[in-house]
Amino acid sequence: MEEEVNDLANARSTAQFDVEAMKIIWAGSQQSFNVSDRISRLVASDPAFRKDNRTMLSRKELFRNNLRKATHAWKRIIELRLSEEEASCLRFYMDEPAFVNLHWSMFVPAIKGQGTKEQQEKWLPLAYKMQIIGCYAQTELGHGSNVQGLETTATFDPTSDEFVINSPTLTSSKWWPGGLGKVSTHAIAYARLLIDGQDHGVHGFIVQIRSLDDHLPLPGITVGDVGMKFGNGAYNIVDNGVLQFDHVRIPRSQMLMRVSQVTREGKYLQSDVPRQLIYGTMVFVRQKIVYDASSALSRAVCIATRYSAVRRQFGSQDGGPETQVIDYKTQQSRLFPLLATAYAFRFVGEWLKWLYTDVTHRLQVNDFTTLSEAHACTAGLKSLTTSTTADAIEECRKLCGGHGYLCSSGLPELFAVYVPSCTYEGDNTVLLLQVARFLMKTVSQLGSVKQPFGTTAYLGRVVHLMQCHCDVQIVKNTTVRDARMPSDDQMTGTVSLRGVFGFLRAPNYSP
């Protein structure tokens, strides 16, 4: 054990960059780092958040344990009077999926983005105090990526001023929402709006599904858990659910009406806000998924890098120590690009947060010019980052040899937790097709009054770009000295690859 500790210490001591400054760059700002560092230490020092036995618990024990953790986290948030940023950070460092995830990441944002001022004033205080717990019920058993194909209906009844929410088929059953199976009291349910037999497309509705007195399902509600999922621990912690409506009545005021309204007389009114705003919550979640990809990838890379430093194989001479796996070129060529990718994803995640914030501010003054670009960027980057990260986590497992297959390495559960992101909030292949459609539309408009801007501005120079070519004629070979990592003297003018360990000292990277 002493030798392993020395291997890491020796590697970290060779850092040729300012490790403290790099921590700030990763966090985004000094303030963000301070919050992250303080909250991570708070969680690590609290035995209520232990996770070492997680992969050995049964499904029921996992869920009960998660209930205890989430309740304890909420008590700590209140006791310490944590800010929204600090509370979000604490939930992150709990380091496991939870039934409250959709409450904060989709239920609340949906009301904020698609609800009227009156609806926000009514529902958000209840949600912020967790007097109600919400989920996001869009995906159905029969339709996921094809939102326009959803089958759940919401029929307006002018005699009672109510909507009648119904699941007409088995495939119209809401399927997958986290927190739905056992916990949620309310759902943002997406359904086809029907008025006098006319279909006005998919809209969102706030539907209460359980009693606030005894937590039993309300009349007309059939709800349950979808069962075991992939992996040990992972999403088996969460009560992903199934939901059916049998002519459930809700007040007209519980239709999210920022974009479209239904009057007391049953007249459908469309505002000037683009219909794409209905899916604004999905765009918000996708940009967060892109940002989170760097966190998942960095954890896997951290584990694999540390393992590579303490694992020794072959190369022993005269009874001396064997060669550290990190020193082999084959290990470096597989591992270091993944480390670089984690940084790239973190930076593009920061940019995407800026883009989404900019779009949100524009929408507030009825400027919708960048909405389609934001949709295309979040769709494309969600697909790219999640597919790459899922593959990279598996590669990190292989880089740890047989030990990577142990649950104690953290990699199997990390993979099982992360891989669903390639599917939820848009199948990655379908999202890439949406990006292609956006690009083809942009190209078709070249030469018109509407010129490409933002991330597609380069297409405005397509004539010039098509004339550009590379003048390189010869490829020069680079000689590889040996299988061992070159010394710092041999790497004059470059940063020592071993310097990456300096950054891995940050407490936020404990596997």
Notes on the protein architecture:
Helix content is 44%, strand content 11%. Strand 5 and strand 6 form a beta hairpin. It is of the alpha+beta class and 511 residues long. The strands form 3 sheets. Strands 1, 2, 3, 5, 6 and 9 form a 6-stranded mixed sheet that branches. A 3-stranded antiparallel sheet has the order 4-8-7, with no helix packed on it. It contains 14 helices and 11 strands. This is acyl-CoA oxidase. It is an enzyme of class 1 (oxidoreductase). It is found in: Peroxisome. Keywords: FAD, Fatty acid metabolism, Flavoprotein, Lipid metabolism, Oxidoreductase, Peroxisome.
The level-1 CATH class of the domain at 275-446: Mainly Alpha
How many helices? The count is 14
Helix content, binned percent: 40-55%
Report low-confidence residues grouped into runs of 5 or more: 479-511
> What fold name stands as the CATH topology of the domain at 275-446?
Butyryl-CoA Dehydrogenase, subunit A, domain 3
Element string (H = helix, E = strand): HHHHHHHEEEEEEEEEEEHHHHHHH
Kindly, what is the distance between the CA atoms of the first and last residues, rounded to a whole number of angstroms?
17 Å
Mean pLDDT: 88
* CATH arch. level architecture of the domain at 275-446: Up-down Bundle
Number of strands: 11
Shape: globular
CATH superfamily of the domain at 275-446: Butyryl-CoA Dehydrogenase, subunit A, domain 3
Layout of SSEs?
Blueprint: H1 2-12, H2 19-27, H3 30-44, H4 59-79, H5 84-93, H6 101-114, H7 117-128, E1 134-137, E2 153-157, E3 162-166, E4 174-175, E5 186-195, E6 198-208, E7 221-225, E8 241-245, E9 248-251, E10 260-262, E11 268-270, H8 280-310, H9 329-364, H10 371-399, H11 411-418, H12 428-444, H13 462-467, H14 500-503
Helix pairs in contact: 2-3, 3-5, 4-5, 6-7, 6-8, 8-9, 8-10, 9-10, 10-11, 10-12
